[in-house]
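Hey, resending since the last one bounced:
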Amino acid sequence: MKHEDSLNPKCLIDLIERKRFGVEYQPIIDCRNNDIFAYEALARFYNADNTTIRPDLVYASLHSSPLSLFQVEYQQKRLQLSYAVNGSNLFVNLDQDSYFSSGVIDENNPFLKLFKECQKAEIIVELIENSEINDAIMSLAMIKNLAKNNILTAIDDVCNPQSMISTSVIQLVKYIKLDKYVLQNQANENFMLLVKSIINYAHSADKHVILEGVETADDLALANKLGIDFVQGFYYKKLFKMVK
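The structure tokens again:
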């Protein structure tokens, strides 16, 4: 994903050197019984005064330095796995550029080894849907390597107007995460026909659908009406924040 904004170098260097990292675990809820099915580990970053920094701003700033991107992402993943709930399913975001920035693609990739060695949780790697064709190609290579090593994958931001759906990618993942844009545009009948088609395809292909951005009882009711498998959002907020 490409962003126009970036952090100033002094702030970025301080963040990296002081490891001002944190993690938030958001529960993913099973619509059938309201039980917690999994958690998503979300990266969090902080200034010296403990105020938060937007994660997308940090990662956008790091993309110009592949080795720094790798170092920060790898440390974030170690933090996220370290505090995971024992015996849980854990969704972790992984940017394609981060995965390939180590220069190792096969089973010796540092991220892949980290996921395979994790004993606390069952890891599901979540890829970001985007508008870059090259990223889609990289996603395919990454998914195939993860699949060879029995690690499940998910695709994020599906139906976001700024994302691109790669049919090849969507066929390989186990979980399809629908963007909160679905809730915001539920009155658009033509758009909802597409959403329902994606859900029907997912279930026909033995995949699961997660709806993001659920904040109200009405949002949850729509998810149930659509036959969504799992939901995620501030309606079920559960926060664990660790600052290093």
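The longest strand covers residues 36-46.

Sorry for the duplicate.
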